[in-house]
């Protein structure tokens, strides 16, 4: 059986590749099984890992089923042969499969298998070209034996494998350290008795030379760890001359071994296993400090930055879980940490290797596994105190604190607060860069270091609160918030126990920059507290299925309210604390009034909760907290809020005394718009939250105030160079002329600037000429040839002074114009940013009040914003604004789940809006903008229809006429902005309108001028139909169909798909419709039998005819009749060195005789071809070949002679004229 098998390397024999052999009977399926077995060896060598594993499993299963020894021996032979394959994936597949076969079939002797490996892959007889594959064959063979889990049972084979691996270790250029690693793996699975009796003597040489290479040292360390009773200190002293691995005598050689190991894993970027084993040995031998000082610091760190330094950093990372608190303090306060800090500082440059992410993983793993707060705190503080000019090397948002124990976290936060107040930089581990050590950079003063340290501590504290994965309670969060708020806006006069923040005095006073950073951090923290869920789990559990509250504490009070109470307590402690911004009497009254209003709202909330009460309370608190940043603006807003709240709380039955006063919601909207002008994310989110609470009370004037942002006032303050407070009636977001005016204004400004620049240049030129003429330096035309008089020193100095003054003034003018241009650009940018914020309010209203009647008044304004954005400039901010507006219009308005259903009395207005939208969509140039107008028209139709199944309150005839005009425009205009997808959406959503448009659709399908649109229109009918229109639609779709081009072919396919859909629907729903005309029309399409072949059109046609009970006729295959004469004739042997007839070049000069033509005509045609150029020859060659083919086929017409070119005709005329003149 084995002899009859075919080697896969020669390729499988296919019947079609040669003559058909006589059939061979295979009743037992032996040949089939052999073929499957051979195919498995091909799959074992595939590059895909999954394919190799599946093939190995199938091979083992097939060998189990057959149970034949011959197949098993053949499989082992084939696997042994494949061990030396040239491809790595193939070698791995054969080795793994051999290991699996040996582990399953124990009747196979390991000794015989090893002998086969040595015989097949003989190291002695292999030449230089074969040695690499032979070495790999031996190695993967031993690897297969070791992975078979039977090697420890046959000690003799185990010994031979170890000796073979020792021999293979000499071929390091091919295998590197693989043999030594395999020996280590074999040792780890060997029993102590076998090691002592069998392997110890064989490994004597390797163990004696353990300090020579990393592989041999690792072999010794594994043996010591696995067999401590065999390799005792006495035995170790006999092998190495010392009873301990870590000693003063062995450290120099160990350092060299570690350096070699570090260089060997340079590309892999991993920690060598020998380094980790040495670390464990140093801990067992109680010589860790000696090893760390001599081997790590004095040895490895003495090399330049590179692989040795990275080995030390990795060794530090893996050592963290193994060390005690004292050992951690020793390691983390020495030279290794300083070198790590230098690496972090130098790796900031681009294209530099950065080790900090890997170190972060080591520390994160330690924090996750360690549950001792003291060790956690030691590690975190050590990395925090690693500073460069006062700034820590680790980032302020370092996420390793996520796994800190609560006790360690509290201690760490207390240390950060103390370090902020009294920085002790002398206790930090300061490192410097190479340039600083060489004196190329100046030293930084101590005040700057303190500022940098505090600059890091503040975001470190806020990141602890903002990280939701850190376990923390409300007391911890409130303590951080109070600490940051206090140091942002207050100073300590005298310590008091009532205010814990005053107990720790500042060793270095806070400067204005630090206060600015702290105040910004506080408002960022306040933004997070407003969306922070309840931290107490018991409160959430008690809430049950209620919606989770955000921004509140467990008792229901808001975080911002607690901070306002703390601020009020600080303001009342004048003897102990002082506000950095002194409040006037007006400011104090506004603050007290704000707190009174909040208290009153809280009482009303307990009696009768209302959303507007919560909104007012939130606004009062946020604006009140803003008083510490901008007191003047906050006082005005608080007054407006208080008057607005009083109007909102007035009884409904009470009439207004002054009808001219605006509604309270309008005042709230104006306040929100004013707040949105501030560049604060906190204010932006608060405005969104407050607006969502007052949405149900919104009026039309209030909504108009949002859509029409009218005026910009500029306010300049000390900290903010430009601040905008928007009021109404200036910047109109609704009208179309905004984009045009913006772009035209920009163009006009640019042109004016250019013209003015030209004028300035001309004026400057004239002034310069005057200065030069005044000093007789500008020569005239008359005395241009005379010698110039020399100027004295005084005149020269005067000229220089005048020129310097002139150029200085010109420079100031140019700089002023640049500043003005930059100011205008920033103003425009801020205005656009404000408009983006206003879109937040629009989105909130559409989400909360999508069913309100006021939504109908937002359709056209939003469309005009989109249209203007498309036609205006394409800056990044403008594109963001346009995308945001388009997304709100599409997702929240047109596709929103809620829409207006009460349109009583607004029918005429909605129909007029529909006509305007459709009319505008047809006049546009851009299809993308027309799509939004068409979607708005569909939204209006949906509003008119309401919840009824019919068209509701929509005037069907008026709506149909509107869309009929659009459909006609789409089919007749060649540059129509409308698309087929728009009408498909219309027909899918409103089938009633589709029925009324059937006549127009069919008319345009058959007679339209845009064939591509006809295909779209037919596709749209596949999902919209009515019984009365079946035959009319189908008859119109299938009339006058000719396959002229691709568009017509595609239209025919779509028409047939429509027929198939309609006929199947008629049969399913049992509708009474006469389908005979359709069947006759379909039969006429195949009258000439042109639809018998295979193709999309033909398949679709016969699928439709199958519904009428007409099957596609089967085409009988005609077998080729082989004549007896051809069988008897022997094939002619091809002459070697000669081309076959089909490859020979044709002689173009010979005339070709065509049917029905004289030879003279052909000769003349051939002569004309000769006179042409090369390009003409190629064309005529194809024509001549076509003439030959047609001459051979009698069913086709004869081909005429090829036409002559103009140049040929001209030459013939000249030749004829010359001949006539000669005569």
From TrEMBL:
Give the matching SUPFAM superfamilies: ARM repeat (SSF48371)
- A GO CC term attached to the entry: nucleolus
Name the InterPro entries on file.
ARM-type_fold, DNA_pol_V/MYBBP1A
Q: Which UniProt keywords apply?
A: Nucleus
The UniProt record lists the keyword Nucleus: yes
Q: What is its main location?
A: nucleus
Under Pfam families, the record lists: DNA_pol_phi (PF04931)
Q: Which GO terms describe its molecular function?
A: RNA binding; sequence-specific DNA binding; transcription corepressor activity
Instruction: Please give the superkingdom of this protein's source.
Output: Eukaryota
Output compositional bias ranges, type Basic residues.
1132-1151, 1173-1184
Query: Which stretches of sequence are listed as region Disordered?
Result: 1-27, 738-759, 1123-1223
Q: Where in the cell is it found?
A: Nucleus
The question of whether Nucleus is a record keyword is answered with yes
Query: Which family does the record claim for this protein?
Result: Belongs to the MYBBP1A family.
Cross-referenced PANTHER family, in alphabetical order?
MYB-BINDING PROTEIN 1A, MYB-BINDING PROTEIN 1A FAMILY MEMBER
Protein name as annotated:
Myb-binding protein 1A
Q: What is the lineage of its organism?
A: Eukaryota, Metazoa, Chordata, Craniata, Vertebrata
């Amino acid at each position: 059986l084995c002899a009859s098998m075919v080697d896969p390397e020669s390729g499988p024999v296919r019947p079609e590749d040669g003559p058909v052999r006589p059939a061979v009977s295979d009743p037992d399926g032996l040949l089939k099984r052999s073929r499957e077995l051979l195919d498995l060896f091909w799959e074992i060598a595939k590059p895909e890992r999954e394919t190799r594993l599946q093939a190995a499993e199938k091979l083992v299963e097939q060998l189990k089923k057959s149970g034949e020894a011959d197949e098993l021996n053949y499989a082992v032979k084939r696997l042994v042969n494949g061990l030396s394959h040239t491809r790595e994936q193939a070698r791995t597949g054969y080795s793994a499969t051999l290991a699996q076969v040996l582990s399953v079939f124990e009747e196979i002797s390991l000794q015989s298998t090893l002998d086969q490996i040595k015989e097949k892959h003989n190291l002695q007889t292999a030449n230089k070209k074969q040695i690499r594959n032979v070495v790999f064959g031996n190695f993967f063979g031993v690897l297969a034996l070791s992975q078979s889990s039977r090697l420890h049972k046959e000690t003799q084979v185990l010994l031979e494998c170890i000796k073979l691996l020792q021999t293979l270790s000499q071929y390091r250029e091919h295998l590197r350290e693989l043999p030594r690693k395999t020996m280590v793996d074999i040792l780890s699975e060997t029993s102590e008795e076998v090691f002592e009796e069998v392997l110890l003597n064989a490994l004597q040489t390797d163990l004696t030379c353990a300090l020579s290479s990393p592989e041999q040292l690792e072999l010794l360390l594994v043996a010591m760890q696995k067999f401590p009773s065999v390799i005792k200190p006495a035995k170790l002293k006999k092998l190495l001359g010392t009873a301990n691995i870590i000693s003063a005598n062995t450290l120099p050689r160990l350092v060299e071994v570690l350096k070699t190991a570090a260089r060997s894993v340079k590309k892999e970027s991993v920690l060598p296993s020998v380094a980790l084993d040495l670390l464990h040995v140093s801990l067992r031998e109680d010589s860790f400090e000696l090893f760390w000082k001599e081997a790590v610091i004095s040895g490895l760190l003495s090399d330049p930055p590179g692989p040795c330094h990275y080995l030390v950093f990795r060794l530090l990372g893996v050592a963290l879980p193994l060390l005690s608190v004292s050992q951690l303090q020793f390691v983390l306060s020495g030279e290794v940490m300083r070198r790590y800090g230098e690496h972090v500082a130098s790796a900031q440059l681009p294209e530099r290797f950065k080790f900090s992410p890997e170190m972060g993983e080591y520390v994160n793993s330690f924090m996750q596994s360690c549950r001792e707060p003291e060790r956690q705190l030691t590690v975190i503080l050590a990395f925090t105190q690693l500073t460069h000019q006062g700034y820590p090397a680790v980032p302020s948002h370092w996420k390793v604190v996520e796994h800190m124990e609560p006790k360690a976290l509290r201690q760490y936060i207390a240390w950060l607060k103390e370090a902020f107040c009294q920085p002790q930089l002398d206790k930090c581990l300061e490192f410097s860069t190479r340039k600083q050590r060489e004196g190329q950079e100046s030293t930084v003063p101590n005040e700057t270091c303190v500022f940098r340290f505090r600059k890091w501590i503040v975001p470190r504290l806020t990141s602890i609160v903002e990280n939701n994965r850190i376990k923390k309670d409300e007391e911890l969060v409130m303590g951080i918030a109070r600490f940051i708020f206090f140091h942002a806006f207050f100073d300590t006069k005298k310590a008091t126990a009532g205010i814990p923040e005053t107990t720790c005095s500042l060793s270095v006073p806070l400067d204005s920059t630090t206060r600015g950073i702290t105040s910004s951090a506080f408002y960022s923290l306040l933004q997070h507290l407003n969306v922070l869920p309840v931290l107490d789990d018991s409160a959430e559990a008690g809430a049950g299925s209620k919606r989770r509250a955000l921004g509140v504490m467990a008792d229901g009070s808001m975080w911002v309210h607690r901070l306002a109470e703390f601020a009020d307590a600080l303001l009342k402690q004048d003897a102990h604390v002082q506000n950095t911004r002194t409040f006037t009497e007006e400011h104090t009254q506004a603050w007290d009034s704000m707190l009174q209003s909040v208290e009153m709202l809280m009482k009303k909330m307990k009696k009768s909760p209302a959303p507007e009460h919560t909104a007012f309370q939130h606004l009062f608190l946020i604006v009140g907290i803003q008083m510490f940043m901008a007191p003047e603006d906050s006082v005005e807003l608080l007054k407006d809020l208080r008057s607005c709240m009083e109007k909102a709380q007035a009884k409904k039955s009470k009439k207004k005394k002054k009808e001219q006063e605006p509604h309270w919601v309008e005042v709230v909207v104006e306040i929100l718009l004013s707040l949105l002008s501030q560049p604060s994310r906190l204010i932006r989110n608060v405005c969104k939250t407050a607006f969502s609470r007052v949405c149900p009370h919104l009026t039309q004037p209030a909504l108009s105030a949002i859509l029409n942002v009218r005026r910009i006032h500029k306010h300049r303050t000390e900290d903010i160079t430009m601040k905008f407070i928007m009021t109404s009636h200036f910047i109109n977001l609704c009208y179309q002329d905004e984009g045009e005016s913006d772009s035209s204004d920009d163009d006009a400004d640019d042109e004016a600037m250019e013209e003015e620049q030209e004028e300035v240049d001309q004026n400057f030129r004239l002034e310069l000429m005057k200065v030069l003429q005044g000093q007789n330096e500008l020569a005239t035309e008359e005395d241009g040839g005379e010698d110039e008089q020399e100027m004295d020193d005084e005149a020269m100095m005067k000229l220089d002074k005048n020129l310097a003054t002139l150029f200085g003034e010109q420079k100031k003018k140019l700089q002023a114009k640049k500043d003005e241009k930059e100011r205008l650009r920033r103003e425009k940018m801020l205005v656009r940013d404000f408009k983006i914020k206003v879109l937040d309010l629009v989105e909130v209203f559409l989400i909360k009040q999508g069913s309100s009647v006021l939504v109908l008044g937002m359709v056209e304004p939003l469309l005009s914003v989109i249209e203007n954005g498309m036609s205006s400039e394409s800056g990044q901010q403008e594109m963001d604004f346009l995308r945001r507006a388009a997304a709100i219009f599409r997702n929240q308005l047109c596709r929103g789940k809620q829409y207006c259903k009460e349109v009583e009395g607004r029918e005429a207005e909605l129909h007029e809006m529909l006509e305007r939208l459709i009319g505008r969509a047809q006049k546009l140039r851009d299809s993308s903008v027309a799509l939004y107008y068409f979607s708005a028209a569909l939204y209006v139709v949906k509003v008119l229809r309401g919840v009824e199944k019919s068209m509701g309150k929509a005037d069907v005839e008026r709506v149909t006429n509107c869309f009929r005009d659009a459909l006609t425009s789409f089919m007749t205009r060649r540059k129509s902005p409308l698309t087929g997808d728009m009408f498909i959406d219309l027909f899918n959503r409103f089938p009633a309108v589709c029925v009324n448009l059937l006549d127009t659709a069919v008319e345009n399908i058959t007679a339209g001028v845009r064939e591509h649109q006809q295909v779209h229109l037919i596709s749209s009918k596949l999902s919209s139909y009515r019984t009365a229109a079946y035959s009319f639609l189908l008859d119109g779709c299938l009339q006058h169909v000719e396959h002229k081009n691709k568009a017509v072919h595609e239209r025919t396919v779509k028409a047939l798909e429509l027929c198939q859909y309609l006929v199947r629907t008629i049969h399913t729903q049992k509708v009474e419709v006469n389908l005979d005309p359709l069947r006759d029309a379909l039969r006429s399409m195949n009258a000439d039998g042109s639809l018998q072949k295979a193709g999309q059109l033909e398949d679709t046609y016969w699928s439709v005819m199958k519904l009428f009970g007409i099957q596609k006729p089967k085409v009988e295959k005609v077998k080729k009749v082989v004549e007896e004469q051809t069988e008897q004739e022997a094939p002619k042997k091809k002459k070697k060195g000669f081309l076959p007839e089909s490859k020979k070049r044709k002689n173009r000069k010979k005339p070709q005789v065509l049917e029905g033509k004289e030879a003279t005509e052909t000769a003349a045609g051939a002569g004309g071809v000769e006179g042409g150029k090369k390009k003409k020859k190629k064309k005529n060659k194809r024509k001549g070949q076509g003439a030959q083919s047609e001459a051979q086929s009698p069913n086709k017409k004869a081909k005429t002679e090829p036409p002559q070119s103009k140049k040929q005709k001209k030459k013939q005329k000249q030749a004829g004229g010359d001949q006539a003149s000669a005569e």
